[in-house]
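Researcher: Let's try something more involved. This one mixes different molecule types, so please make sure each is placed in the same coordinate frame as the others.
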Amino acid sequence: MMDSVDRAIINRLQGGFPVSDHPYRKAADHLDISEAELIQRLEQMLEKRQLSRFGPLYNAERLGGGLSLCAMSISEEDFERVAEQVNAFSEVAHNYARDHRLNMWFVLATETPARIESVLAEIEDVTGYQVYNMPKKEEFFVGLRFEV
Amino acid sequence: MEKGITGPLDELDRRIVVATQGGLPLVPEPYEQVAQELDSTADEVMRRMRKMLESGIIRRIGAVPNHYTLGFKGNGMTVWDVPDDKVQEYGRKIGALDFVSHAYHRPRHLPEWHYNLFAMVHGRDRDEVMEKTDIIVELLGGDSRGHEVLFSSRILKKTGMRIGQ
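Model: All components are placed in one shared frame. Result:
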């Protein structure tokens, strides 16, 4: 179970981790715990999958790649086949079934922005279904802190 | 393999990204450890990471919580049809809500899809997601010309994004 220290770590350390020689010590000072305790608690929260990661969060597009959210409307009898075909593309990073007429939603991450369109065309070809491309026009990341 | 690393990133930057995208080492001097793996120095690694932070290549450094295991088992992709000239204003307001993890302006696909603003809403269950969605309904008032909440019924794939090794 998480206690108040774990919660403080999650609530206060979602950004701003120092880039300095002893960053854990510096972050631990702000949390009123020792460096060793902070490291141990992070290890445990990662092990329990309460944290999916601890470290830098990179902006995929700024690294030069292409990124888009795509949706498809698949009939029930074709759903498993199409899911398999879509997932077989290494460029498909996540794929979710959602309760909607557009019932398959996946994120496409490609080496270059130009590759998005060609991968989409390949997916349409292989599956026989239309893909709705919904690349973001702008993102709003103000609420990046998630409170527990 | 080069995976689209272009522009301001050089070879060492790229290797820093590859070495740290899965997480920072949990040791007292993590940047020193990364530097040793890359045959560089801690000062050089830190200098480059600070630069990537400044330029936005690194969004932030810290804990990435797993909503699901933290008890937020409901997550709804809420989609909204708002006037195009107000998307930015509402995107900022909705993105600032503490139960919204991210919000995006995306293109419509008329006539099938008329939503232009997406916001991921997190709650302990679907009921809580619906309650929180109502807060957004109130915030938008008459400017919401329609919305839906799409719940995920199944994860079909989740590998995440990684640049080449």
